[in-house]
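Minutes, methods subgroup
Present: GH (chair), OT, SY

1. OT presented the first of two proteins processed in the latest run. Sequence and structure tokens recorded below as shown on screen.
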Amino acid sequence: MSGGPQTDGGTRIDGPDYRCQTRTEAVRRDRRGPRMTELSHRNTPGVFDPSAIYSHVVVPPPGRVVFFAGQWGAKVDGTLIDGGFRAQVEQTFSNVQTHLAGLGIGPSHVLKLTHYVVELDQEKRTAMHGVVGTIWKTDKPASTLLGISCLARDEMLYEVDVQAIIPD
């Protein structure tokens, strides 16, 4: 072999796509296929299709996953927004979008939402889905909705955990 990279067993190899990796590492990388640049939203055939509300599976591109602490309807001064359940959900997602923008990403980078609703009923479910639907018209994040008895503050009616990705 003249001047080319070594490719046997544990010998290090070089090249534009394999910078100082073992052959095993390089082959493993090749098997990963093309790099994804967008989220892949999937609702597998044979399972209920919830795409009007959420996605069953969201596959992220390579990147860093970001976990948000529970977000709620806090104004900048830390007080709860007035106006009831829908106002709290709207303020919560305004806060989420501010956090996303601060990371240089947007709603399309959200992988999963976990909603916590105090005394969940159809009216609250409809209001929450209405707000979420204005942000994600298609390709909705994976989602879990939990009806609970209380949150950290007595007056809080809604909280959401968010997982997002900052793509490579």
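2. SY then presented the second protein from the same run.
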Amino acid sequence: MLFLVDLESFTRIEMVDYIERELFLEYKVKRKDLLAGITRKGSYNFSFHIISSEEEKLFVKSSRKKLLKETGFKEIVSLKQTHSDIIKFVDSSNLSEFVNNPYIIGDGLVTNVKQILIAVSTADCVPIMFISEGESLCGIVHAGWRGVSSKIHLKMLDNFKKYGVSFDSMEIIIGPHNRKCCYDVKNDMFNYFDEKYFLRREENLFLNLEDVIRDDFINKGITNIYSVNLCSSCNNDLLYSYRKGDGKGRNLSFIGLT
């Protein structure tokens, strides 16, 4: 018999406040030399990998220029996301390659270069940001259930470990996504996640990916874990949600060193 645990009784993650800007929500982070946030739903398009015409490509470029102007950064680097566990390191030697080609395959980015925003697109999946308190290093991953199951968020830690970053000095920000209130799944998800991460409400089954991610980080010695308390489905007026019918729209989560 399966016993489904109500995760409301579990330890809560500390929530991150945000400031509403014209194009994005700016997260209130401790590091003063770092910007992190997510674009708002609106009349712009920041994601290359969901477009199908040259006209749309030009619109994405113009949208990104407006975002760069508002944030004060020089470049945006993103990837062609495929729900993989591939992570790319962006440094001064390969920066131009990524800037000129937004179709490099991968679902995670890490960088030590200042004045660039590394970004992932989501519309229900989980954007996860990685911050080192001491080193000039930041990272971000796109994680749906496949990415979380393949532990892309833990593989990102290897990049920080190479720089001598102590895990207990890191901060994690879990961005807006389809949360446990709305992420209804089928029984086949039991093949990928422990039953304690599921909720049963009436005839529906819901998965809490945030707690899976949280527990994975805690097991690695990371305790500074924060969450933006926004569900993409519940807040569909503010954020894009694929499950709510936003087939083309994507939220761009980004992080960068100033």
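Chair's summary of item 2: The longest strand covers residues 116-122.
Next meeting: continue with the remaining queue.
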